Each structure stands twice: as C-alpha cells, then as structure tokens.
Amino acid sequence: MQNSNSGKKVCIRTFGCQMNVRDSEALLGLFLEKGYKSADNPKDADVILLNTCAVRAHAEHRVRSILGSYKKLSAFSRQSSASKKNKAESRKLRADSCKIIGLIGCMAANSGKEIFERMPHVNLIVSPAKLHKIPAYIEKIKKENIRIIDLEDKEREEDFYNASYRVKPGYAQVVISTGCSNYCSYCVVPSVRGELRLRKPKDIIAEVKRNVSLGIKKITLLGQNVNDYRDKQGVNFVDLLKMVEELDGVEEIDFLTPHPKNTTKELFKLMAKSKKIRKYLHLPYQSGSDKILRLMHRGYTKKEYLALVDDYKTIVGGTIGTDIIVGFPTETEEDFLHTKDILEKVRFMGAYIFKYSPRPGTHAQKLKDDVPQRVKEKRHAELLELQKKISNA
Length: 393
Ligand code: 5AD
Ligand code: SF4
Fold this sequence. Notes:
A 6-stranded parallel beta sheet has the order 2-1-3-4-5-6, with helices on both faces. The chain has helices spanning 18-33, 57-69, 79-84, 87-97, 106-118, 134-144, 189-193, 201-213, 237-245, 265-273, 290-295, 302-315, 333-346, 373-392; strands at 9-14, 37-38, 47-52, 100-105, 124-126, 148-150, 171-175, 177-178, 197-198, 218-222, 252-256, 280-282, 319-326, 350-355. It has 3 domains: 9-150, Methylthiotransferase, N-terminal domain (Rossmann fold, 3-Layer(aba) Sandwich); 166-277, Transcription Regulator spoIIAA, CATH 3.30.750; 279-393, Transcription Regulator spoIIAA (2-Layer Sandwich). It contains 14 helices and 14 strands. It is globular and about 60 Å long. Helix 13 runs parallel beside helix 14. It is an alpha/beta fold. The longest helix has 20 residues, at 373-392. Bound molecules: 5'-deoxyadenosine and iron/sulfur cluster. The site of 5'-deoxyadenosine has 12 residues, from strand 13. Residues 180, 182-184, 187, 189-190, 224-225, 259 line the site of iron/sulfur cluster.
C-alpha cells in the first residue's frame, strides 16, 4: 500500500552527547515507520531537524549559524510570496517544495522561546521530553501552515523507544533514565532535560530483549549518572546491570556515565566477575582541586577520586576514561596543577577536556567567569598535549 509519506525525506543532524545520538536514532526510527526515508544531506530532505546540545555556548553558536543558513530553504521564508496566491496553492507550494526546519533537544529547551521569536523561518521547536510528538507535529505544520513550539518538561512516553531502527548493525544504546538531579554547578543538563526520571526495569529489559530478537548483541546503557538509578522497589543500577547480563543473546554490555560520588565497589565487583560487561569505566573528574570540586558541587575530593580509581584498578583492572573542565571560576595555577596531577597519575585511555563555559540558569553562572580566555586556552592545550603523550605511550 502506498503510504502518504512515501517520497518524503527527513534529515536529522545530531550535536552533543551519546544521549542525543540515541534520541536521534529513536526519532528517525519513528519517521521510518511512518514511511519517510532518511537523508544524509539537508538539501535532499523535506524535513530538517537539528537535535542540539546546550552544554557549552560554542555548541549553541554553531547551531544558530546553521539555522541562519537554512533561512532560504524554509517553507516560512516563502510566506510573503505564497500569501499572494490562493490558499490551496500556497499550501501545495509549502508541501511540495519547501522544507520544514526544526530545532529540537537541549538547545530548544534552553533558547527555544527566543529563537522562535527571532527566527520565523524555524517552524518547529521541541524540548527533549516531547520528541515523540515530532512526526505528528510535522503533519500538522504541513496541513495547517502553522509554527509549533512545545517546550513541555514531563516524563517521556515509552512509545518513543519502540522503533527497531538502529544506526550501527549489532549495536544498541538503551536509555535507562532521562534528566538529572545532581545540579553540578556548571551544568545546564538538569535545567534543559529536567529532573532525574527512571524508565521502569521491565521496560528497559523489554527493549533489550527486542534488540536481541533483532540479532543485536552489544548493549550500552545510558543515563546522565547511571549510579543514580534506584526505583521505588529498590532496584539499583548494579541490579539492573545484572538483569541485563542474565539475558541470553546479550554478549557485551557497557554503560555511560557513572559519577564518582556514588560509584560503588559493588559495581566494580560485578564488572570484575562478569564475562559480558566491558572492563572500561568513563569516570569524569572535572577538576583535581578540592576547592574547585566544592564549587562545582561534585561531592568528592581529589583524594577520594584517586582512591576510587585505585579500587577500580585493583578490583576490575580495566581501562578508564574521563572528562575535565579547565578555567572554572577562581581556578588558580595551583588548582590547575592538581587537575594535571590526576591526569598524570591515573593515565586515562582517553580524556575529553573542555574550557569552562558559563551556562544560563546554573549556579556557576552567578560566579564571575574570571579566568582569562588565554589562560583557559593555555591550560586546555597543556592537558591535551599531556593526554596525547599518555594515550600514545
Ligand atoms: N563548560 C564546560 N564544560 C562543561 N561540561 C558540562 N558543562 C560544562 C560547561 N558549562 C562538560 C563536563 C561534562 C561533559 C559532558 O561536558 O566535563 O562531563
Ligand atoms: Fe550535569 Fe552533573 Fe548531572 Fe552530569 S551529573 S548531567 S555533569 S548535573
């Protein structure tokens, strides 16, 4: 049977973290099931969606400039000429030859209202919690020639995860929780993705089983801080890992991201014992200075972080990676040397190193961004250089 959407193409461009990668995949799956095709190049698509990141200002600037460059492609930039024609004709023009441009994800939650006002050619703006509504919103935009903004923050609907489409054959990411309630002082995630919300163990297991039935053997469990997982029945992250591990057909499991403040020896013991869980830990330390860690509201000291890494190396013996921020407000050379010291001591397999970027609505934004840009750049370059040597050693 001919689907009314056959011939329609959607291009979803993804910015930022693995959570966004999975969200885009799940969303594309919903479109494919509605008869759309996927386009790699925005020029070939009828619907262009930017699934965005708000963690650093730089990422937002990039998306703003891409959005600006789409102005000439949008259904709404042709509105004035279209309005001269009769209604049916103008609707056909929009449906046939103009693109729908959407800003979705974290940046929508962060700056969506302002962009909706300033960029009339952007016809759809949707927050991370409402991504499952997007295919229906697109139909509504086409039919009614309207713009839609939906920034509601609520529990995601399970249906969002139902499509079977996977980008990489044999591999699936499975979201265990959305949002975050840790409020690290620099981080915009709790404000754009909302408070921590857990998917039910039975829904997570059902999704893993669906993957297995599709021949998928490798699973990554995703949460902003996976260790925060604890449902009302007391099922915690280690229990959940065990449940996934027990499933026949699952051969390799890993997870992103554990937070040092509540990473436990139980987790390490399970990793050591398991034949399926990958012996890799991504353990962001952000800073090595106790003063900066306090200002970041991270909930551990340098000594505690290093002790945790020692436990990991002793119990699991696997590899380790991390995230670091340089140039957080008030960071002195001495603070920075503590950060460098951890990098030297732990010898990470890889490290994502960022320059601090003040974010709206965060606690840290109230502090003066007083480390000069050139100092941030120097510290950033120094750590990159050091990590390069360690990675290549
Ligand atoms: N500035 C710079 N880096 C940040 N990160 C999060 N928020 C900020 C910010 N405001 C980094 C942290 C986090 C990673 C995903 O992004 O290192 O672990
Ligand atoms: Fe942001 Fe901290 Fe939550 Fe990670 S744990 S998402 S850094 S608030």
